[in-house]
Amino acid sequence: MRPKDVTNLPRLTLFSMLLMAGDVTAQHGAHVHGEALLTIAASEDALHIAFESPGANLVGFEHEPQNQQQRQALVTAAQKLASPAKLLQFGGAECQLQEADVTSPYTGGSTEVAPTHHASHTEHSEHSEHSEHSEHSEHSEHSEHSEHTTFSATYHYRCDRVKTLDSVYVNLFDPFPGIQSIEAQWLTATRQGAGVLTSENRQLKLQ
Predict the structure, then answer these.
(1) In a domain, 2, yes or no
(2) Residue range 121-154, pLDDT digits in tens
(3) What's the number of CA atoms in the CB half-sphere (13 Å) around residue 9?
(4) Is residue 179 included in any domain, yes or no?
(5) 5-26 pLDDT tens trace
(6) Residue 150 belongs to what domain range?
(7) Residue 3 falls within a domain, yes or no?
(8) Is the residue at 116 inside a domain?
């Protein structure tokens, strides 16, 4: 699914359309090991980014963690995603992170992280430590999705000159070498586009 003509659409509609496009793509075959999704929406002074990837790309497995090493791998991956300063750089505009929200499998749901609390993942760790003692209903729910477990992250920025934002450099390949390609879609108040990023081509041009 690709964004339609968005020239005259309001900001909230832009964000909604882009996120819906990513959701539909994910539901129809995007869960392929080695591949991930990135969606970007910009309007006025706001920049919203959503990332989604199969768990195998980030931690090497998708089943329920069997030992402490695997549980820690889930926590570590979530911590890396919650600190996007090393993962995303912007060209043409200064953007400040306002909020990061990371959802990882088998760690107790999502965690919202303010930009001044980069290490606030105790909740993830505590849930991971005791995941083997969870209620049977939780295990049942996890087992139903064990073949398609995903990590997702959303980032909300404020930018000084979002209209001049011309590129996004994506550095998710170094911390997560299991990612081979990222299908990227972007949307602004006047333009739209899509592309495929790889470790050799990490820059998404928006203009």
Answers:
(1) no
(2) 333 444 444 444 444 334 434 444 445 589 999 9
(3) 22
(4) yes
(5) 333 444 445 555 455 544 544 4
(6) 11-205
(7) no
(8) yes
